[in-house]
Design goal:
With 503 residues, the chain is of the alpha+beta class. It has 19 helices and seven strands. It is flat and about 130 Å long.
């Protein structure tokens, strides 16, 4: 069918530029410039051209429309000017359909590859087969150059593969439930098949992995439980336990194996408890405390809250109490002789933990703690002898030495040595030290808590170790304050007190 635009163009082309004898506007203008006689002729030609243009604009479209109405639609029009041939249009359409089909094919293949990597061949079932059929149909159409049909088949395959992907979560849940049900029913093959599907969908699924491990040994677990039941029926409890334990070693989540194992374990625990209690009582009668205690521990581990165990333990404790108390007494006395009072007090405390009414332990602990405290206080003074420069700490040190000497005995040489060192330190701390003061004979000097010494240029004072404050005053000058400390055993400093800053 021809292009209507071309039909309209052709008549215009004939009318406007086609007449060789009709002069254009440029020719008319040139004629007027050459001769005035032709002016009226040019005006006439111009009017003629206006009439022609009016016909083109208003009459020609109606003529063309009337012509198109009269032409039968089945008769093809001549090919339009500058339009591509029909064969070229078909080739472009076919090329476009081919590109679209190939693009969709690429999408299908990528989707298939991804699902294949996720095990769709195992869990996809008939849905996956249907998608493959759609893909095959598309391939066949592509081979026959039926590109539109191929694109349609590929689009259907894409939708089917996307549906498979969307169903993965639901398929996984169904496979897991089916596998668990098969395990509970003892159906190993069905359980393995179900968990295989689940693992194909999600290889790292913990529930599926565990279920598959259980499914692989299900038949062996069932057999072991049955053999264990036969041993238990013959009162061979240890043999039954061995089989049940083997079953649990294969499948720790088997309810059947767990119930059988727990039942026979309870029976064995009751049997062993009675045997341990009998052995404990026999050993207690023979004064074999170690064996009796070991037997009671076995019995208690089997039945921790048994009143029989508690009663037998009390009897054993009474039997071994004296032995343990005597052991702590010997250790404490040995440590006292070594003047290790803190460790001695710990042994007395252990004896009291056994028997709170042990009088020797109460007395010994009080004594050992008191001596340990005296040693600690003496060590504190000896570590900081400068504290003795003050009268208060010196008096406390004297009281401490008196308390230590009150209980001192020749068997405590370490304590005696510490008392002697502290006494010498107190003596040194109380020995006055010669301190030289310097001034300017213009400043009045006072040493707090010592006295006022007026004006001088140099003066020596005997002062005991300690901290002091010297103050200087002078009319018209700012007062000065000098703080100094005298430490026993150290060279005393020179003290300078001068008022030098005028007010």
């Amino acid at each position: 069918m021809s292009d209507p635009t071309d039909k309209e163009t052709r008549p215009v082309t004939v009318i406007v530029p086609g007449s060789a004898s009709a002069p254009g506007p440029a020719q008319a203008h040139g004629s007027r410039s050459r001769t005035a006689s032709l002016r009226w002729l040019a005006i006439g030609l111009l009017c003629l051209m206006l009439l022609v243009l009016t016909g083109v604009i208003f009459v020609l479209p109606d003529l063309v429309a009337d012509r198109e109405t009269r032409e039968p639609p089945s008769v093809p029009a001549p090919p339009p000017v500058r339009s591509p041939p029909a064969a070229s249009v078909d080739e472009k359409r076919v090329a476009r359909e081919k590109r679209e089909a190939e693009r969709l094919l690429g999408i299908v293949l990528r989707a298939q590859t991804e699902l294949e990597a996720e095990g769709v061949a195992i869990w996809g079932g008939e849905n996956y087969d249907t998608a493959l059929d759609s893909l095959a149909a598309g391939d066949a159409a592509l081979q026959e150059d039926a590109y539109a049909d191929a694109a349609h088949d590929y689009q259907r395959a894409i939708a089917q593969l996307e549906g498979l992907r969307a169903s993965m979560a639901e398929r996984l849940a169904l496979a897991l439930d089916a596998g668990d049900g098969a395990l509970a029913a003892g159906n190993g093959p069905k359980a393995r098949a179900s968990f295989e599907v689940a693992l194909a969908i999600e290889p790292g699924n913990g529930r599926a992995n565990q279920g598959m491990r259980r499914a692989r040994v299900l038949e062996e677990v069932v057999s072991l439980v049955e053999v264990g039941a036969e041993h238990e029926a013959r009162e061979d409890l240890d043999g039954a336990l061995k089989n049940y334990a083997a079953a649990l070693a294969l499948d720790a989540h088997s309810d059947r194996a767990r119930a059988a194992h727990d039942g026979v374990t309870a029976r064995i625990r009751d049997r062993d408890f009675r045997a341990a209690m009998s052995a404990a009582l026999v050993a207690l009668e023979k004064k074999d405390f170690i064996a009796s205690r070991a037997a009671l521990e076995r019995a208690e581990s089997l039945e921790p809250d048994s009143p029989n165990v508690a009663d037998a333990r009390r009897r054993l404790q009474l039997a071994v109490q004296r032995h343990r108390i005597e052991t702590h007494r010997r250790e404490a006395r040995s440590l006292e002789r070594a003047e290790q009072w803190q460790k001695a007090s710990e042994h007395y405390a252990a004896a009291l933990a056994i028997d709170p009414n042990a009088a020797f332990a109460r007395h010994g602990r009080r004594k050992s703690l008191a001596r340990a405290r005296i040693h600690a206080e003496l060590d504190a003074y000896l570590a900081e002898l400068e504290r003795l420069s003050a009268s208060g700490p010196r008096e406390n040190a004297r009281r401490l030495m008196a308390a230590a000497a009150d209980g001192n005995a020749p068997s405590e040489p370490k304590l005696a040595a510490k008392i002697e060192r502290l006494a010498k330190a107190i003596e040194i701390a109380e020995t006055p030290m010669k301190v030289r003061f310097r001034s300017d004979n213009l400043t009045d000097v006072t040493v707090y808590k010592v006295g006022r010494f007026g004006r001088f240029s140099s003066r020596d004072l005997l002062l005991p170790p300690g901290s002091y404050v010297a103050v200087g005053t002078r009319t018209g000058y700012r007062d000065v304050r000098v703080e100094f400390t005298l430490t026993a055993g150290e060279e005393p400093p020179f003290i300078t007190v001068r008022c030098q800053e005028k007010i």
